[in-house]
Amino acid sequence: MIDDHNLKIPEQEYRDLAVPSYSLLASVSKQGVDVFNGVKNDFFQLKFGSLVDDICFEPSKLVNYYHGEAVKMPSGNPKTIVDEVLANINGQIGENESEPGFALVKTRKRKISGDLNQYKTEVISAARKQKVYEKYNEDKIFNTVYDKANLYFSDRMKSRGKVLIKPQMWEMAIEAANTLKTHDFTKIYFEDTPGIQLIYQYKFVQIVNGIKVKGMLDCLVIDHENKTIYPVDLKTGESPVEMFDEVMLLHKYYLQASLYRTAIQQIVANDTDLKGYSVSMFEFVYLSKMNVNKPLIWIVPEELHEAGMNGFTDRFGFKHKGINELLDMYQYNKSVGGCSYEKEVFNNEGRKFLSNLIMK
């Protein structure tokens, strides 16, 4: 059945799979072929969306992956001093990764502590380096920093290796997740319903356009009674829910919808246990931070699915590459050992016409 094709591996192991993903192809579409060679900019803040995803679909990750900021952040010299101490500790940990829990301090090893008292020398050294509290003796320097920033230091030490989340973001993410689980429009993705199977964080590797690709889908809904499979992905953002069509173009989400649905269709077609099942149109559940109590489900029609596979010109006159063209670019780049140019430009010795400035 469909669950047999779900890669039951940790997320990091999935991300380490050396095959193209939607996010890689979307980055190439936005930034060009240099992405294939490791050049990539992270333009958008993904922290909130990932947190809502994990609260909804993988709550077991929360304790080990996230840390809620628990204390008020100090200001001024105490903060800058403690930040330097923290940076030095984290740098030393990186140098001694073979022995977790220990950092190198000059020539001796020291167990990492969340108590600022253990770092008096480092605090004084940072103050001297920053040329602050120059009229204070060493005890007064340390006591001043300790009084203002010890709790901050301890909290940051507890958060090492985790994603730091501010209290306001925690509250908003929990409210967003509760909305999705209870709202009349979206609770179907979380309720136990006879004949309905729900699979969260569905990971797969499939051949698309002759090339192995990977994907991780937030939710796969299998209606066994009607033999219909619904691929669903959760998105959050700043824009109102009514403007998701513009968000979709900006973030190239149509590539995700087309790639994932095509892959699921091939899984179904090649599994005799799924004979008679069909894959419905891709669904995006979108929630805006402007109003986390107002989810909207956006359906990707067949026309847009095909456009996402083959490329299209949007209503503004801009051309967008499709999955097939992007996979061809990936295959070419791989075959020549990592070329910084598209195939046509390389074959034309680095020349390209300015042919897309005038709408025809």
Summarize the structure.
By secondary structure, the protein is of the alpha/beta class.
Please state the second-level CATH architecture of the largest domain. Answer: Alpha-Beta Complex
Overall shape: globular
Proportion of strand residues: 15-25%
Number of helices, counting only DSSP H or I runs of 4 residues or more: 13
* Uncertain spans: 41-45, 93-108
From the N-terminal CA to the C-terminal CA, the straight-line distance is 49 Å
Taking all Cα atoms into account, the compactness measure Rg is 25 Å
What is the strand tally? 12
What level of helicity do the residues show?
A: 40-55%
Structural domain count:
2
Overall pLDDT score? 87
User: For the record, what CATH class of the largest domain applies?
Assistant: Alpha Beta
Characterize the largest beta sheet: strand count, sense, and whether it forms a barrel: 6 strands, mixed
Order of helices and strands: HHHHEHEEHHEHEEEHHEEEHEEHH
CATH topology of the largest domain: Lambda Exonuclease, Chain A
